[in-house]
Structures are given as C-alpha cells and as structure tokens.
Amino acid sequence: MHRLILVIALVAGAAALAPAAHAWQGRCLPPAQAERCDITRGTVTYISDGDTFYVDLASDRSRATVPVRLIGVNAMEQTAYSRFASRRRGECHALEATARLEQLLERGRMRVRLYALSPESRSGKRLRRAVGVKINGRWKDVGRRLMAEGHGLWLSRWDEHAWNADYARQGEYAASLQRGLWNPTHCGAGPSDASPLKVTANGNSKFLNDEWVRVRNLDPVNTVPLGGWWVRDSSLKRYVFPDWATLPPGESLTLYVGEGTDTWTEFFWGLRKPVFNNMTRRATGDGAYLFDPQGDLRAWVTYPCMRDCADPYAGALEVGAKPRGREHVTVRNVATFAVDLDGYQLQSPPYSYPFPRDSVLQPGEEMQVSIVGDPAEDTRLEKSWGETGRILNNKGDKVRLSSLRGVLIDCFTYGTGQC
Predict the structure, then answer these.
(1) What is the pTM of this model?
(2) Which residue from 389, 387, 396, 388 is spatially nearest to 415, judged by alpha carbons?
(3) Ramachandran angles phi, psi of 133, nearest 5°
(4) DSSP notation for 395-416
(5) Which of 101-105, 189-193, 284-288, 297-301 shows the lowest mean pLDDT across its residues?
(6) Are the beta carbons of 81 and 88 closer than 8 angstroms?
(7) Which domains does the chain have, with CATH numbers?
C-alpha cells in the first residue's frame, strides 16, 4: 500500500513538472525572434517573487501548477511570500520587483506564453522560461521590461543564450539612469554615501585563484568602513566583509575567490570552485556587485560590455611582443596623459594577465611584462606574467590588450596570428 502511494505521488509530481502536452515550435519572443523556441501557454495562479511565479499550463489535462523561473533576470531575494503585498518581506528592491512583475502579468490578464530554446530547460524544479504577456494587442517580453526598469541583475545562460546580449544591454541602460536597484540611495541614506567607490573584477578566468574583485575608494579624504558590506555575483553567491574591514582614502582592497588568510588589503571568499561565468561567443558573462549593509547597490561592474563601450584609453596604448628568446610583452603609453592599467589585461589565448594595482604608465613610458618570472619581484615598469614556460607561438600569434570588460584597446600580431 505504501509503495502504491509513493508511485502515485511520484507520477503526480512528474505531471506537475512536465511541460504542456500542446506545446509548439515557433519563433522566440522578440528580441530573440531569430531563434526557434518551444512555446507553451498558461495562466498564472501565484506570484512568488520578482523572478518566479506559478502557472496552470493549458491543455495539460491537470489542475496542477508548475513553477516558472524567468530566464536572464535575478531579482533581489524575498524572505516572506504572500498573495498580499502588505505581507511580503525581503531585501532592498525585492518587493518592488515582485510588484512590477505582478503588474505586468495582470496587464496581460494573467495569461502568458512561455518560451525556451530547450523544453527541458530548468532551474531546479522550476521551468526556466522567457515570458510573454499580451499588452495592447502585442506580446511583450516580461524579462526584458524588468531588466530595462532596473528590477534585476543580468543572469546569463549558456543554454538559453538567445536573450543574453539584449538583457545585458537593458541592464546597462537601467544602470546608466540609476533606475530601480541601480539607485545607490533607493533604500535611504546609507553609510559613506558621499564617498565614490569603484569595482573591478577579473571573473573571466579558468582558474579559481585568478578570480578576484577589487574595490577602490575614490574619496581623497574619507575612509570607508566596509564591515557588513557584501559582494555578490549575478547569481546568489555572496561574501560579507568582516567588521574590521576598512578602505582608506584613495586605496583599494582585493577579494580573492579562493582560500587564504585575510589582511587589511586582501580578503578571501573561501570558495573551492570559480564563482564567475566566463565570456563566450554566446554572450555569456557575469558581474560583481558591492552592496552596503542596508542593501543599496553602491558600485558594480559587468562583463562583457554591451552598451556605450567606448574606452578612455583607446588610442593611448601600443602593444608589442618578443616571441623568441626570453618572451615578453611591452605596453607603451603614447598619450599625453597618465594611464592606470588596473582593470585591464593582456591576452594570448588561452592565457591572460590582469595588471596589478601599481600599473600606472606616465606619458612616453613603456612597461615590460616577462612571460616567465615571479610577480613577487615586480617593479613599477617590469612585471612578470607568472607562467612557467613559453606561451607565444614562434610561427605566429597575437597579444590583445583589453579592459576586463572585454573592450579591445590594441592588438599585436606576427606571422600567422590574427586579431
């Protein structure tokens, strides 16, 4: 009897999670209309938070509902869930995202179309889908609207890649206008509000120890206490700074993803796997976000750059390389102003070298980066890549200089190499 009950429960659970029987193939919802999608219809029955709701799928011969997780959007976390807005609780920006999702779904009379490149696309038990609602006679992309209004962080996917580039652009657009969660005082005055901060990240890496987030205090006068502040990626991984963490005026600190011993300028997340997504030809990427203790987003960086990607150092730097003998790469400042290379990198795929903090080139100066050597012995104009052997192909190769957001500054080629 118990076995029969278990089988019935498993079958019911599988039915609740199964896509609709009457799904069809068609063009994905714009702006991904160039791709073919698996499409299903349904009626929304319950809204959990700013990126998740439940749907009764049409024609599935069941009254069961399935949870749906929006592709490409990660709203701030809610902690108390309810049909009634007054009973909801959550982090700064979470309830606004839920309310806006609810409003958009209600404008479509709670009827939705669900789109995915693969019908098997899931986030745990939730169907992972782009969501369309019909507003003023046209099907609109709910996730795209939420991103453009600043209600979520961009969450790229390798599998459901059709929405990556556009959602990233919408997020950068919202950030440029300080909409929604990009407003640094949205949840009220916070600590050190007058102190500007900058975040850079080396997240596009294959190795755990090469991933880091750097926070710089651009205030020339005031120290910023960072105790209780937190850093996260575009998904849910989070690091909270200890109470004693401080950032003096004009200084920076680095948070490494791996393990180590904390100091005043170096902190360690303690993870055993890389946390950031790499850039790929499918427009995948990630972001590093710094929040103050009340939950306001104070500084951030995303990669790759998708909007307004002009770089202030374009035309200011020239790259060269010596592939034979003692391999090294040179970077020369050909501009009339100083150039700070913190936030930039050299690449000779699959190898990359992010410049350390003390990498400022005055006009006319040249820096040499030796491929083999110990970075602990670096000087201001002589650096070591840190490899143990040769990386440049004698017959032909390329060396790129780009920002950590993927914006190309200069490229040197020789032989058969091509940029």
Answers:
(1) 0.91
(2) 396
(3) -125, 150
(4) TEEEEEEEETT--EEEEEEEET
(5) 189-193
(6) yes
(7) 18-182 (2.40.50.90), 197-303 (2.60.40.1260), 317-415 (2.60.40.1260)
